[in-house]
Amino acid sequence: MRLDVPELAAPGDLTLRPWRLTDLPLVAEAARDPYIPLITTVPSPYSEAEGVAFVERQWSRAATGAGYPFVIVSGAGRPLGTVGLWVRDLPQGRASLGYWLAASARGHGAASRALTAVTAWALDELRVPRLELHVEPWNTASLRTAESAGFRREGLLRGWQEVGGERRDMYVYGLLAGDTDT
After folding, report:
1. Adjacent-strand bridge partners of 152
2. What is the set of domains in the chain, with CATH numbers?
3. Which of 14, 75, 161, 166 has the largest count of CB atoms under 10 Å?
4. How many CB atoms lie within 10 A of CB 53?
5. Does position 171 have pLDDT exceeding 60, yes or no?
6. DSSP label at 149?
7. Counting runs of H as helices and runs of E as strands, what totals does the chain give?
Protein backbone atom coordinates (compact mmCIF):
# COMPACT_ATOMS: atom_id res chain seq x y z
CA MET A 1 0.00 0.00 0.00
CA ARG A 2 1.48 3.33 -1.07
CA LEU A 3 1.75 6.00 1.61
CA ASP A 4 1.78 9.71 0.89
CA VAL A 5 4.28 11.56 3.06
CA PRO A 6 2.56 14.83 3.96
CA GLU A 7 4.14 18.14 4.82
CA LEU A 8 3.74 18.87 8.53
CA ALA A 9 4.41 22.01 10.51
CA ALA A 10 6.42 21.65 13.70
CA PRO A 11 6.97 24.21 16.48
CA GLY A 12 9.82 26.66 16.12
CA ASP A 13 9.27 27.33 12.42
CA LEU A 14 10.21 23.79 11.34
CA THR A 15 8.67 21.90 8.45
CA LEU A 16 8.62 18.15 7.95
CA ARG A 17 8.42 17.07 4.32
CA PRO A 18 9.28 14.19 1.99
CA TRP A 19 12.86 13.62 0.84
CA ARG A 20 14.16 15.36 -2.30
CA LEU A 21 17.33 14.97 -4.32
CA THR A 22 18.23 18.48 -3.21
CA ASP A 23 18.75 16.94 0.27
CA LEU A 24 22.01 15.28 -0.82
CA PRO A 25 24.18 17.73 1.19
CA LEU A 26 22.34 16.55 4.33
CA VAL A 27 23.05 12.92 3.43
CA ALA A 28 26.71 13.80 2.81
CA GLU A 29 27.01 15.47 6.23
CA ALA A 30 25.29 12.53 7.96
CA ALA A 31 27.65 10.12 6.18
CA ARG A 32 30.61 11.82 7.93
CA ASP A 33 29.05 11.26 11.35
CA PRO A 34 30.68 8.39 13.28
CA TYR A 35 27.30 7.00 14.48
CA ILE A 36 24.52 7.75 11.97
CA PRO A 37 25.74 5.31 9.28
CA LEU A 38 25.94 2.54 11.91
CA ILE A 39 22.23 2.75 12.78
CA THR A 40 20.76 3.78 9.42
CA THR A 41 21.20 3.16 5.72
CA VAL A 42 23.11 6.44 5.28
CA PRO A 43 26.10 5.50 3.10
CA SER A 44 29.62 5.72 4.43
CA PRO A 45 31.76 6.58 2.67
CA TYR A 46 29.54 9.00 0.78
CA SER A 47 29.34 9.31 -2.98
CA GLU A 48 26.70 11.12 -4.98
CA ALA A 49 25.46 7.83 -6.43
CA GLU A 50 25.13 6.35 -2.92
CA GLY A 51 23.42 9.54 -1.72
CA VAL A 52 20.89 9.31 -4.54
CA ALA A 53 20.31 5.64 -3.68
CA PHE A 54 19.66 6.65 -0.05
CA VAL A 55 17.03 9.22 -1.07
CA GLU A 56 15.44 6.71 -3.42
CA ARG A 57 15.23 4.22 -0.51
CA GLN A 58 13.27 6.82 1.44
CA TRP A 59 10.85 7.17 -1.48
CA SER A 60 10.61 3.37 -1.67
CA ARG A 61 9.68 3.13 2.00
CA ALA A 62 6.61 5.27 1.40
CA ALA A 63 5.83 3.60 -1.93
CA THR A 64 5.86 0.13 -0.38
CA GLY A 65 3.91 1.13 2.74
CA ALA A 66 6.82 0.64 5.16
CA GLY A 67 6.54 4.10 6.63
CA TYR A 68 6.74 7.86 6.45
CA PRO A 69 10.29 9.24 6.12
CA PHE A 70 10.37 12.99 6.75
CA VAL A 71 13.14 15.55 6.34
CA ILE A 72 13.29 18.13 9.13
CA VAL A 73 13.71 21.57 7.53
CA SER A 74 14.45 24.88 9.24
CA GLY A 75 12.41 28.01 8.65
CA ALA A 76 15.24 29.20 6.39
CA GLY A 77 14.79 26.08 4.24
CA ARG A 78 17.89 24.20 5.44
CA PRO A 79 17.51 20.42 5.85
CA LEU A 80 18.58 19.49 9.39
CA GLY A 81 17.88 15.79 9.76
CA THR A 82 15.14 13.22 9.55
CA VAL A 83 12.37 11.60 11.53
CA GLY A 84 10.63 8.46 10.36
CA LEU A 85 7.39 6.77 11.37
CA TRP A 86 7.60 3.05 10.56
CA VAL A 87 4.28 1.21 10.33
CA ARG A 88 5.33 -2.42 9.77
CA ASP A 89 3.67 -3.42 13.06
CA LEU A 90 0.51 -1.36 12.60
CA PRO A 91 -1.65 -4.52 12.33
CA GLN A 92 -0.58 -5.19 15.95
CA GLY A 93 -1.54 -1.64 16.93
CA ARG A 94 1.90 -0.08 17.09
CA ALA A 95 4.39 1.89 15.04
CA SER A 96 7.99 2.86 15.70
CA LEU A 97 9.93 6.05 15.21
CA GLY A 98 13.54 6.96 14.56
CA TYR A 99 15.34 10.25 14.12
CA TRP A 100 18.72 11.86 13.61
CA LEU A 101 20.10 15.33 13.12
CA ALA A 102 23.21 16.39 11.25
CA ALA A 103 25.92 17.46 13.70
CA SER A 104 25.63 21.09 12.57
CA ALA A 105 21.93 21.14 13.57
CA ARG A 106 22.17 19.63 17.05
CA GLY A 107 21.59 21.35 20.35
CA HIS A 108 18.65 23.56 19.42
CA GLY A 109 15.69 21.23 20.08
CA ALA A 110 14.85 20.53 16.43
CA ALA A 111 14.70 16.75 16.93
CA SER A 112 12.35 17.10 19.89
CA ARG A 113 10.03 19.48 18.05
CA ALA A 114 10.00 17.27 14.95
CA LEU A 115 9.36 14.12 17.00
CA THR A 116 6.52 15.86 18.85
CA ALA A 117 4.90 16.89 15.55
CA VAL A 118 5.11 13.42 13.99
CA THR A 119 3.90 11.84 17.23
CA ALA A 120 0.84 14.11 17.36
CA TRP A 121 0.09 13.39 13.69
CA ALA A 122 0.44 9.62 14.18
CA LEU A 123 -1.82 9.59 17.23
CA ASP A 124 -4.44 12.08 16.00
CA GLU A 125 -4.60 11.55 12.25
CA LEU A 126 -3.46 7.97 11.77
CA ARG A 127 -4.96 6.77 15.07
CA VAL A 128 -1.94 4.64 15.97
CA PRO A 129 -2.64 3.20 19.45
CA ARG A 130 1.01 2.80 20.50
CA LEU A 131 4.26 4.42 19.43
CA GLU A 132 7.69 3.04 20.28
CA LEU A 133 11.29 4.01 19.91
CA HIS A 134 14.59 2.44 20.90
CA VAL A 135 17.59 4.36 22.19
CA GLU A 136 21.01 3.20 23.31
CA PRO A 137 21.58 3.94 27.02
CA TRP A 138 24.67 6.13 26.37
CA ASN A 139 22.79 8.43 23.93
CA THR A 140 21.68 11.06 26.42
CA ALA A 141 20.65 13.60 23.75
CA SER A 142 18.31 11.08 22.16
CA LEU A 143 16.97 10.02 25.57
CA ARG A 144 16.15 13.67 26.33
CA THR A 145 14.51 14.03 22.91
CA ALA A 146 12.26 11.03 23.52
CA GLU A 147 11.28 12.18 27.00
CA SER A 148 10.62 15.77 25.94
CA ALA A 149 8.22 14.44 23.28
CA GLY A 150 6.25 12.61 25.98
CA PHE A 151 7.66 9.09 25.61
CA ARG A 152 8.11 6.99 28.75
CA ARG A 153 11.04 4.69 29.34
CA GLU A 154 9.60 1.21 29.75
CA GLY A 155 12.64 -1.00 30.08
CA LEU A 156 16.02 -2.15 28.91
CA LEU A 157 16.20 -4.62 26.03
CA ARG A 158 19.51 -6.42 26.41
CA GLY A 159 21.35 -7.17 23.16
CA TRP A 160 18.37 -5.83 21.23
CA GLN A 161 20.03 -4.64 18.04
CA GLU A 162 23.22 -5.08 16.11
CA VAL A 163 25.07 -1.79 15.75
CA GLY A 164 28.51 -1.60 14.20
CA GLY A 165 28.91 -5.37 14.25
CA GLU A 166 28.01 -5.88 17.93
CA ARG A 167 24.82 -6.52 19.86
CA ARG A 168 23.76 -3.42 21.77
CA ASP A 169 21.32 -2.80 24.59
CA MET A 170 18.44 -0.43 23.91
CA TYR A 171 15.98 1.33 26.12
CA VAL A 172 12.47 0.94 24.83
CA TYR A 173 10.26 4.00 25.07
CA GLY A 174 6.52 3.96 24.56
CA LEU A 175 3.71 6.42 24.14
CA LEU A 176 0.07 5.38 24.13
CA ALA A 177 -2.73 7.34 22.53
CA GLY A 178 -4.19 8.01 26.00
CA ASP A 179 -0.92 9.29 27.47
CA THR A 180 -1.23 12.76 26.00
CA ASP A 181 -3.90 15.21 25.03
CA THR A 182 -2.34 16.02 21.65
Report:
1. 174
2. 8-129 (3.40.630.30)
3. 14
4. 14
5. yes
6. T
7. 5, 8
Q: What is the pLDDT of residues 131-164, one digit of tens each?
A: 999 999 999 999 999 999 999 999 999 999 988 8
Residues 112-133 pLDDT 10s? 999 999 999 999 999 999 999 9
User: Can you spell out the DSSP letters for 58-97?
Assistant: HHHHHHTTSEEEEEEE-TTS-EEEEEEEE-TTGGGTEEEE
pLDDT at residue 178, rounded to an integer:
86
Phi and psi at residue 142, in whole multiples of 5°? -70, -35
**49 Cβ contact list (under 8 Å, min separation 6):** none
Give dist(CA 127, CA 145) in Å, integer. Answer: 22
- Expressed in angstroms, the distance from the first to the final Cα of the chain is 27
